[in-house]
Specification:
This protein has a two-stranded antiparallel sheet with strand order 1-2. The protein is mostly helical. Strand 1 and strand 2 form a beta hairpin. Helix 2 crosses helix 3. The protein is built from four helices and two strands; from the N terminus they run H-E-E-H-H-H. This is Gibberellin-regulated protein 3-like.
Length: 99
């Protein structure tokens, strides 16, 4: 009987945690739909490209990568290890596409 109660309590805690995380992402401007949380690519890319010397080019590349990966690394440069998909997209010439 104690094992069943412990299991139910653990499931309840897990459910509450997942619900909380979904609400946090939705509050950050993400849109919830069909079980996938989409981030706000425009907002994140504006922050990512804010210090770029070529902001229009940066925004175009960033939005393209974000729409494929649903991820933009934090900060204005680097941190590619936080979004492996974003870091793996290359141009036809083999150079990294995503800023």
């Amino acid at each position: 009987m104690a094992i069943i109660r412990s299991t139910l309590l653990l499931l309840l805690i897990l459910f509450c945690h997942i619900t909380y995380e979904l609400h946090v992402h939705a509050a950050e401007g993400a849109q919830v739909g069909e079980g996938v949380v989409k981030i706000d690519c425009d907002g994140r890319c504006k922050g990512r490209c804010s210090k770029s010397s070529r902001p229009n080019l940066c925004l175009r590349a960033c939005n393209s990568c974000c729409s494929r990966c649903n991820c933009v690394p934090p900060g204005t440069a680097g941190n590619h290890h936080l979004c492996p998909c974003y870091a793996s997209i290359t141009t036809r010439g083999g150079r990294l596409k995503c800023p």
